[in-house]
Amino acid sequence: MELAALAVCILAAAAIGYLARSAGLCIVRAVVAALERQPLMLLALLVAGFWVHLAAFAGGDDSLHLIAYPPHWRFVVGGLLFGIGAAANGGCAVGTISRGFAGDLGMIATASGWLIGAAVVAGSFSAAPLAAQPVDIPPAAAMLAGSALIALAALVRWRYPAAWPLWRAVCAVGLLSLVLFLFEPNWDPSACIMRAANWLAGAAAPPSLLQVAVFASLGAGVLACALGKGQFKIIVPSPAAAAVHLVAGILMGVGLALALGGNDTQLLLRLPTLSASALLAVAGMGIGIWLWLLVKGQLAGHSAAG
To answer: What is the pTM of this model?
Structure first.
């Protein structure tokens, strides 16, 4: 990759990290808000990935690498486990990065759990029966998706001005993820985690330099936001809290490995294909979050850190 392209990817990833921290983007928070009859954050996250359809105009069919998998039980189970783990952790994949790079050391246990859980699945569960199929985006569909996103953003700006800053941030994340997608289709943190887990299990090469650079840049963006807003604070978890984060991380790791991607992958790269597997995974995540909150009695007044 040329140096200029690498610089673009690093800057785009850092901007995503900054925006995610600034807006508090997290699917756990979004599901909780939706259950409390404030669905706009969840809706924004569900449509954020559809900006990738504009890649049909940015570089033609050769630049597109969207894939879809056939429906399978593993997407439901994986999504469910990921959702339960994310709710127990108090943050999804993006939320964990946002908290960790802002000083919450408990997220180190969560990230360790990701690798453990995903490596266990990588070492014992074959994905061979699930052949990925390339997804073509017809120009007409790309135009329709882009027009709908713009119209929806205008509606939110006009009808729900209080929600506009959040919606604007999510739209920006979607557009920035499109930029990254054009250079590296597997730029998302979940892809980096799965690659690292497969490597630890002896089943794949280590993450690419670009994947590592993007992951680090996401964290740098979070750190810049936390420092700029005076939100950086070292939090040392108790042993019990660290154990909870580790177990939650393992559940998330198993879930993302089974579903072939965490919430970042599913929302930004799989859901735009409208494939049954992505719909099952996202639905499973939402149900898993809901079940955990229901069991813990945290549906009312719950506030997950993003």
So the answer is: 0.91
